Amino acid sequence: MSDISSAYRGVRVTIWNDSKFFTMSDDGKLVWFHAYTNAQTNGLGLYHATVEGLAANMRWPLERYRKGFTEGLAKGLFNYDETYQCVYFPAFLKYNKPSNPNVLTSLIKVWPYIPETPYKAMLHKDLKGLGDAFAKVMLKVPLKVYPKTDETVTRTVTGTVTGTVSKTTLPRKELSTEVDPITGEILTWGDVCEN
């Protein structure tokens, strides 16, 4: 039997008071709900998907979906990593915290299927921050850590939505890491290796 938290997403009614949300176009709002609740999502708030696939799932023309998606990105309601094709809702755990460590153990089974985007490291840290019992579960979860880079790619959105959405581009190298079983610290070891 699967856990109920893997099938439902919590959305606060106060979302309608959030100026980032209520100032979006109707398409932007619907794209947000779709990106937050579609069948590809999981109980962690980070999942693998392409914008093209999400548009097809909605049965919308790509440009219409992309316009609403870009609007959500520009408002900071979610993030998208084009390199690893991942959608990430940084506030997801605020409204969808696993009810206990056993639930997290169940939810974390999708971890190997999430690409190694930097958002995965952020989620790992957030899950550890839910409390000591949750941190113990996360000690068993492997994580790759990426060096910081100042290199960014900027794209300008044109049309009815204007602004700049930035995406961090990862370098070609990653650091090998392991988690200290006692302290839970992420330890960097070995040489920098090629991807």
Architecture overview:
By secondary structure, the chain is an alpha+beta fold. The chain contains 8 helices and 7 strands, in the order ααβααββααααββββ. The chain has helices at residues 19-22, 26-37, 51-58, 62-74, 92-95, 101-107, 118-128, 132-138, and strands spanning 46-48, 79-81, 86-88, 152-157, 163-168, 173-179, 186-194. A 3-stranded antiparallel β-sheet has the order 1-3-2, covered by helices on one side. Helix 2 packs across helix 4. The longest helix is centred in the middle third of the chain and has 13 residues, at 62-74.
What is the residue-mean pLDDT, rounded to a whole number? 80
Instruction: Tell me about the largest β-sheet.
Output: 3 strands, antiparallel
- Note the overall shape: globular
- Tell me the strand order in the biggest sheet: 1-3-2
